[in-house]
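Encode chain A's predicted structure.
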Amino acid sequence: MATNSRSASDAADSTLSLRTKWAIAGILTGTSLAAFVGAGSSALAVYFARRVITPSAKNADQEVLAVIQGDAGPQVILAATPDTTVDGVYSLFFDNGKGHARIGRIVSYSPAEQTVLREVEEVYSGNLSEARRGWWSGAAYHHPSAIGVAADDVEIEVEGGTAPAWLIRAEAAATAPVWAIMVHGRGATRMECLRAVRTAKELGLDSLLVSYRNDGLAPSALDGRYGLGSTEWRDVEAAIGYALDHGAREVVLFGWSMGGAISLQAADLSKHRQRIRALVLDAPVINWVNVMAHHAQVNRIPYNVGRYGQLMLGHPLGRRLTGLAAPVNLKAMDWEARAVELRTPTLLIHSVDDEYVPFEPSASLAEKNPDMVTFEAFHGSRHTKEWNVDPEKWERMVRSWLLQQLAPRNNPGGTGADAEPAGEAAGRS
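Encoded structure for chain A:
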């Protein structure tokens, strides 16, 4: 990555116009609201900004109508939604998250009744027959044992304590020179990453499925707010350090959604960035401004209101209302604008119908930096569910691309598995 990225982004942040600073000050003090967006709009801007950065409970918006016994086992009748009418394997969480079932293929779909009948592959916990509402998830498996692999529970030292992680070895008695470090998305947990473990094992990679601040497993940040990648990357850096201390020589970062933004920040800022061999990012946030603008539009929030919400996140004056310990530099995480600075080979997998993180910035990044970035489009998968819809395609695509990236490098000073990182070699010469 470019070594001057932090100074450049800091300089960009310091050039906010005087008008912008007065606008934020007006929202915060209430002295000039009428001149800008009005009292109601300013309150909406605050609410919008806080929603983006505040961890929140899951919304049990999926209706469960009945559980019946089919010829091959239990089946569940669900209210038809854009999620439940897409084929594949998913999870249904219910009873405030205490219940968890893995839901399989669609048996039948009735558009007229707006219901869908699906197979129940397994109930991990709870009584599904008593469930009335729940939430849908692409994290289909609850534990490594559910996909038939053994895992060690390990603890990674992070700011504020230790973060639990699952360590899955490619071979029972061996440590691979390249590890896969897997980073889940916003509002998810390390369960989300189990979808990639089989591919990593086939490639001979040990897998470290991590937790990070505010995800309910790792220690919370002092302010209790998401940094959208600007703070969480330090926990991934700690995970890379753990891998290096336990036999890895290089790592591949896998990231989903906000986990993609976190991985990009780690590749840009971490002291271990030279050890990051490649990035595999599924539905990643490439440009937070684009994502926030999309959600403002979907929720019919006026453009100016959404824009003021962004300004609150990025300016020190906004901390009084957002609760952030430090501003979030959205420009520093705009990889469309910084495309040429990305120097880590990167695979971007993104569904063109992603309803949460628009795919266009991923396609744009690949177009602007084709030497480093490969973009692969999926269709009909919605957000981060590309593997769920077509696991064979996802695994084949990732395996083929990573085989090229992990091939031994013959150039002097290369950082492949057959050569030590150039910086260390130089230090001993």
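The longest strand covers residues 99-110.
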